[in-house]
Fold this protein.
Amino acid sequence: MPDQEPKLVARAQRGDRAAFEKLVRLHADHLHAVVLRLSGDRDVAEEVTQEAFLRAWRGIDGFKRDARFFTWLYRIGVNEARRRLQRPSEPRPILSLEEHPIEPRDPGRGPAGAAEYADLHSALEAAIAALDDDYRLPLLLRDVDGLSTAEAAEVMGLGEAAFKSRLHRARLAVRAAVEPYLPARDE
Amino acid sequence: MRPMLRPIRFMRDHRFISSHASAYLDGDLDESRRRRVERHAGVCARCHQLLESLRQTIAALMGLRAQPRGDIADGVIARLRELMAQCGVDAILLKHVKSAEAAERERFLGSPTLRVNDQDVDPTAGERTEFGLKCRLYPSTDGLRGGPRRVRGCRLDPSARCARCAGWLKGTTPTASTRSLAPCRAPSPRATTRRSHSRSCVSSAEACR
């Protein structure tokens, strides 16, 4: 994360809204991406992201600077997303690859390779969506969003050992679901 | 190792890899455990396949990382500004008063001190001279409280959409050790809120009209 973040947080705590807006620009996309995969709905994800930042703004005086701002922010966002998902009147749709396409990172394998890649990603999306939240979140934070184990555990309020255990189980579940789509290596 | 023990050791290594495959791939194992995994995976096709497929799965998960959309922050910032405008807040300024001399200079009556358009929220404050780094209480119908229930000249009310303002005006005032009093914040200075607490953590905030 950028070195400027602690200074921006300090300024925001003194009431500098421009500094807070810079923090928004630093983290909004990443938080939105995590919340989108948790909620499975773009509108809900945007609302949750907005609400998370509003809560962060209201509560930034209480943020202790020995913690990392973005893990604190993610925690607010994740809690808000979970609150939304617990509402029975709001069924959670499953992301489809057609509606939410993901560009292959390795398109150099020709049409057949790209098709295989799309199959793998469809299977991944379905496998992630099928996970319980307690297992999906570690996977999203650590593997998809790229947080370190310590950061992701902090977001979830878990010890690292408990976090790693959940992450491993989640990975094994996803691996089992996508294994038929993985490219053969020993050829 | 004696030949009879080899199958037992093999099965133990098998289970070890099943439970430590992620730790191995994340580089979290110490040298001896890492060698144990590699030695076993070298002779066990099933464990080799587990590690390889798990590695590919993690790589594929990393490939799902969304490209930044770029417009999410714009929406959040627009919403923040909209709420500030609804609250009628023009600016908040937090000011830290760190010494008795500064308290005297700032005519600081204690924490929290709130000023709106440079006027203390307590109409009698202008007549008082007991400046210093200390806690400040405000009279209310329920007795003394850690913050004012109403602010002169502030058009906010408890039903305001800004929960921070609403919470403040509803009387959910902070204790001396909290730093959550400032109602909300916005760009151009017009009103001032000040506060401090006994360990000389003093601040002021421009609040609402």
